[in-house]
């Protein structure tokens, strides 16, 4: 890649907070970002060159994106892999990660089957089409179990805990479509590894501990509070996952550390991920810069961690949808080594991701509690 002014253009399907942070990382690299999003003046709009307003799977929108860009990528799994593949072939604009990877990821059952076939350790799972299928599967896997919609779920949406036989019918009705069921994993902690595939190299960021409540990520702790052996095993599994993926980019790899110290794959996101936001301040190269380096074929940056880091999500704390007005931010801005990231969303509602706070220190002790205190001082009420 040769740098010019204006620089090479990366077209991004999606203009949410991930597109916004990709835009922030693009400028120092001399890259221009062009995003597509159905929401006019989307969160990424203020920090990118231009936005094409259109649906994520709209052929005309993606064709215009490909015609105006030198490289294509995506920050949301709602992009249509068939359309991406077709416009890439017709315009000669490469897309990374590969559309085939997106096809695999979009269907949780296909994802689990492919990874299991490749030898990646996963929880026991079964395909489910009917209530009878779910009853039969739970008789094998045991109760409780986790029923998941095969497509479209995120942040806990599309996931239903099935406590016993009495919950089966309602769970299937609520999913209202193709599903899969997994055994309930008895885990010590949840982990994440941001994996990177470059043109001819691969790497991983340090293993991160992820803390969820109501199946929504609340905090990321890096390095993870796990043993060295567990962290090494998590990295090994992440490398095995990268071997299965096609194309260049960053991949969010979510894992379980079981109570007996084993590692099981939960899910994969073929893009920068919430569990890697801490890398902006915590590593020499952020996950967003790394993704752009990979997509454009540049050498990958160093994934070494600079110091212990905790990232905490700012979630909507209101009961009704309303204009987004955050209060209490002065306490974050006035705290040494604390960093506020605002996503620029115009409206807030309950549990919507509106931003995050990152806190770094040379000593990890007390860092999580301090970061939570900063986050809890913020409100939309």
Automatic annotation (TrEMBL):
**Record-annotated residues binding ATP?**
108, 148, 182-185, 190, 212, 266-267
Q: Could you tell me the keywords of this UniProt record?
A: ATP-binding, Ligase, Lyase, Magnesium, Nucleotide-binding, Purine biosynthesis
Matches recorded under Gene3D superfamilies: 3.40.50.20, ATP-grasp fold, A domain, ATP-grasp fold, B domain
Domain ATP-grasp intervals: 112-296
Q: Which reaction does it catalyse?
A: 5-amino-1-(5-phospho-beta-D-ribosyl)imidazole + hydrogencarbonate + ATP = 5-carboxyamino-1-(5-phospho-D-ribosyl)imidazole + ADP + phosphate + 2 H(+)
UniProt-recorded Gene Ontology molecular function terms: 5-(carboxyamino)imidazole ribonucleotide synthase activity; ATP binding; metal ion binding; phosphoribosylaminoimidazole carboxylase activity
Name the InterPro entries on file.
ATP-grasp, ATP-grasp_carboxylate-amine, ATP_grasp_subdomain_1, D-isomer_DH_CS1, PreATP-grasp_dom_sf, PurK, PurK_C, PurT/PurK_preATP-grasp
Which pathway does the database say it acts in? Purine metabolism; IMP biosynthesis via de novo pathway; 5-amino-1-(5-phospho-D-ribosyl)imidazole-4-carboxylate from 5-amino-1-(5-phospho-D-ribosyl)imidazole (N5-CAIR route): step 1/2
* UniProt GO BP: 'de novo' IMP biosynthetic process
Which EC number(s) does UniProt give? Answer: 6.3.4.18
- Give the NCBIfam families listed for this entry: PRK06019.1-5, PRK06019.1-6, purK
Q: Which family does it belong to?
A: Belongs to the PurK/PurT family.
What role does this protein play?
A: Catalyzes the ATP-dependent conversion of 5-aminoimidazole ribonucleotide (AIR) and HCO(3)(-) to N5-carboxyaminoimidazole ribonucleotide (N5-CAIR). Catalyzes the ATP-dependent conversion of 5-aminoimidazole ribonucleotide (AIR) and HCO(3)- to N5-carboxyaminoimidazole ribonucleotide (N5-CAIR).
Give the multimer and partner information.
Homodimer.
Protein name (record): N5-carboxyaminoimidazole ribonucleotide synthase
């Amino acid at each position: 890649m040769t740098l010019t002014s204006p620089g090479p253009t990366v077209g991004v399907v999606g203009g949410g907070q991930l597109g916004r942070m990709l835009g922030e990382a693009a400028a120092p690299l001399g890259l221009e970002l062009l995003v597509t999003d159905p929401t006019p003046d989307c969160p990424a709009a203020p920090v990118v060159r231009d936005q094409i307003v259109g649906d994520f799977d709209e052929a005309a929108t993606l064709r215009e994106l490909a015609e105006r860009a030198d490289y294509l990528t995506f920050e949301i799994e709602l992009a249509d892999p068939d359309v991406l593949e077709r416009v890439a072939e017709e315009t000669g604009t490469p897309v990374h990660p590969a559309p085939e990877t997106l096809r695999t990821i979009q269907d949780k059952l296909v994802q689990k089957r492919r990874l299991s076939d490749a030898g990646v350790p996963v929880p026991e799972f079964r395909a489910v089409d009917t209530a009878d299928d779910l009853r039969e599967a739970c008789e094998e896997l045991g109760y409780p179990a986790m029923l998941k919609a095969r497509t479209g779920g995120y942040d806990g949406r599309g996931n239903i805990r099935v406590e016993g036989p009495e919950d089966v019918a309602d769970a299937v009705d609520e999913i209202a479509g193709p599903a899969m069921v997994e055994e309930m994993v008895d885990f010590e902690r949840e982990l994440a590894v941001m994996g990177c595939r470059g043109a001819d190299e691969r790497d991983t960021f340090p293993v991160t501990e992820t803390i969820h409540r109501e199946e929504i990520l609340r905090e990321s702790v890096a390095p993870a509070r796990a043993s060295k052996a567990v962290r090494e095993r998590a990295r090994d599994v992440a490398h095995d996952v990268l071997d299965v993926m096609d194309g260049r980019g960053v991949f969010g790899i979510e894992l379980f550390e079981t109570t007996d110290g084993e590692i099981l794959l939960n899910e994969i996101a073929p893009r920068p991920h919430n569990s890697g936001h801490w890398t902006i301040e915590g590593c020499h190269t952020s996950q967003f810069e790394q993704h752009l380096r990979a997509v454009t074929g540049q050498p990958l940056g160093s994934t070494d961690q600079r110091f212990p880091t905790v990232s905490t999500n700012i979630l909507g704390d209101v009961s009704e949808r309303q204009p987004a007005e955050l209060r209490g931010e002065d306490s974050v801005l006035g705290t040494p080594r604390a960093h506020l990231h605002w996503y620029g969303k115009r409206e807030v509602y309950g549990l919507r991701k509106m931003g995050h706070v990152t806190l770094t220190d040379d000593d990890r002790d007390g860092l999580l509690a301090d970061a939570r205190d900063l986050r809890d001082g913020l409100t939309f009420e």
